[in-house]
Amino acid sequence: MRVAIGRVLLTLAVLAWTTAAEAAGCPMEDRGIDMRPPGPTESLGEETVALLGHVRLGQGIDDRVLRLRRITLSPGAQVGWHEHGDRSLLLFVESGIYTEYRSDCRVPITHEAGNAIEEAIGTKHWWRNEGAVPVVLLISDIVTPDAVDRLNLPRR
Fold it and tell me: Which range marks the domain in which residue 45 is found?
């Protein structure tokens, strides 16, 4: 299992480096600060979150954990308006298509299977599966150990 998780993380890192800036981003002419007001705050529909693995980081960052999750959104499901105030993450669209509504983009952004997306510190957005099939996302981030504990799984 550790080898498989390692391969997924390596794939995510390579994809982020090569395609994040090109992956269905906001057009330059539609970018700016607070271009879009906050959207709906409630999350709707069926959303499942599975912790695929995690590992404690060391050498000066012992109080942090690298976490890998799979989130599945049913058709019509949405993740309500939220802000990444304290962490960034790397997201890979494994399957499906979803629409993101960001505060720094005037137009909706479509993300599809194969896209790697960076959600940096300060990102404010909400997103919805507007398609007819589930959206499956792999999400990697660095969090405190209590964020892993909240998923009721043992820490490693």
Answer: 2-149
